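Shipment paperwork, digital attachment
Item: protein structure file
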Amino acid sequence: MLPLEFCDENTQTEGDNKMERKKKQRFALAWLAVTAALLVSSLLVPSAGHEESVRAMMCDAVLHGENRCALFGMQVNPALISAVVVSGTLLLAAALIRVLVIPRFRYVPGRLQSALELAVETFDGLAKTNSPHRNSFLGVYAFSAGVYIFIGTIFELFGFQTVTTNGISMALPAPLSDVNAAISLGVLSYLVILSGGIAGNGLRGVGMTLKEFSLPLSMSFRLFGALLSGLLVTELVYYYASLSYVLPVIVGVLFTLLHALIQAYVLTMLTTLFYGEMSEPAHPKTAKA
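Attachment content:
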């Protein structure tokens, strides 16, 4: 015979489990009911109609000729506002990490310390592998560029809203979806490569770097094209009502995360690779016997 107290505890536990299951079932049913109600209402409510064609929508996503925003009294591309927000956030986060987190680093790292060390070691290792002669500054630039590309790309997933000068509400795009931002980052990477050539080989390094005149264009448009393709596919999916349920979430997240990872790696890898090639000291020619 089991003690009476044990039976009472067992009965109470089973009762608590049943109550917990009932609560979960009620929550699931309520969630399904709300989802079904929103879906039915979205189908029944008549649409206001498209204000612009697919062609006009895609042209504006590339050139930003229509949907412009006000910033300090100027009409600018929405991507510029995204760039200001991302840059300010990264600078603020860097200052807080330096003041509050780094002084508390321990010999046995925690999760945040492990994540920071992994990110730094990844880009620092990329710089040391591709440029064994000069890599102190290169590691810093690779880390900065990689973090900016990754954070700037996934920024559009948050859907921060802004109002254009035409009074239309729109989500802020990724900073590098603007061709000007992509060209700026490509040219900056090229100048870093040029500085490596000058530091390693002087005027000869300048000539070696200038031979790769197509490098900033290739890096810029590769970055711009990859990020813009994800933006256009997502915009196209949202444009048609028959595709605007569930699918945009999958497409948007998938394209954004893949582009964030791939483009951050590709640009930093190309920059460190060419930097190492240009900064490598020239081997003196051996005199013939």
